[in-house]
Amino acid sequence: MKSDRLLSILLLLQTRGRVPAHELAGRLEVSVRTIYRDVEALSTSGVPVYAERGRHGGIELLAGFRTDVTGLTADESRALFILAAQGAHAALGLDAALGSALRKVMAALPAPHRPAAEVTSRRVLVDATRWKGGPQPAVDLDVLQDAVFSDRRLRLRYRHSGDLEAHTYTVDPYGLVSKAGVWYLVADRRAKPRLFRADRVRAATVLPDPVRRRPGVELADAWEVLRRQVEERPGGVDVTVRVRRSRLDLFLRLNAATLAELPEDYGTSDWVVARLSCGAVREARTMLAFGDAVEVLSPPEVRADLASTAAAVRAVYEGD
């Protein structure tokens, strides 16, 4: 709706200051010509907005102009009170600020929407942490936040998974991402996106040098590239297994991340065939946890690796 778009433009200009017309068009998924028509409509309605053309131009509100926007719909009001990952606010030291902000939002809501928003906050809870995720090490995000918000470079002492020693890196941070309760720093190293788990950072120092991000790249852009790299790793191993039907539910839950396709169901058969995509042969060793309830059918190298691993475990328990 045009009214929603005009409100979005007004909020973006109040938050960002001068914004290029093409950026507004991209965010709102309309043409640049439509944006200029909307700006004219805002100006006609009394909003002091103007456009400057040229290389460094853009659309901007008159300096000092602010408006108290209360045009929230009922669904928008409810959505504000469904907050994911409460632990994320605590990790950032923002629990108290969150509570204060919600009280202010509640006071500013149109009176008819307040009861629904209040009920929503009591009836819907989003917890982004996984079941049985195990104890998580304490993560100090203060220095990482300082670098992110001050637009400074960051020197890290970082230990990769499987490494005994930490490595030193100088990075250009884009921001922080909380993924299923785990915090990650998204940063460029030598102009290429990298992902650093916050709980593997052994030391961090904010440098005086300004950050050197790639032009036009935002946190969401860099995160999307890294997320795809993790989820679509090339060169994996396709593994076919058969699973006892009595253990199928547990098997599917524990292997959801590597499941390549839904298992073939042969009716009332005791066995169900499933296909996994593992990053390496050794990753299939998790099948041993199911004992004789799971058998790897292919490829041969995975069967051989499981057999040798099982023999090594047997030797441990049969030894003196």
Gap between N and C termini, in Å?
77 Å
Helix tally? Answer: 11
Structural class: alpha+beta
Please give the largest β-sheet.
Answer: 5 strands, antiparallel
Number of strands: 11
Task: Label this structure with key terms.
320 residues; alpha+beta; 5-stranded antiparallel beta sheet; 4-stranded antiparallel beta sheet; 11 strands; elongated
Mind explaining what this structure looks like?
The protein is an alpha+beta fold and about 325 residues long. The chain has eleven helices and eleven strands. It has helices spanning about 1-15, 20-30, 30-45, 75-80, 85-90, 95-110, 115-125, 140-150, 220-230, 250-255, 300-320; strands spanning about 50, 60, 150-160, 165-180, 180-190, 190-195, 200-210, 235-245, 260-265, 270-280, 295-300. It has a five-stranded antiparallel beta sheet, with helices on both faces. α1 packs across α3. It is elongated and about 85 Å long. The mean pLDDT is about 85.
Q: Which secondary structure elements does this structure contain, and how are they paired or packed?
A:
Elements: H1 2-16, H2 21-28, H3 32-44, E1 49-52, E2 58-61, H4 74-80, H5 86-91, H6 95-108, H7 114-123, H8 142-150, E3 152-158, E4 167-179, E5 182-189, E6 192-197, E7 201-210, H9 219-231, E8 237-244, H10 248-254, E9 259-264, E10 271-278, E11 294-298, H11 300-318
Antiparallel strand pairs: 1-2, 3-4, 3-7, 4-5, 5-6, 8-10, 8-11, 9-10
Helix pairs in contact: 1-3, 2-3, 4-7
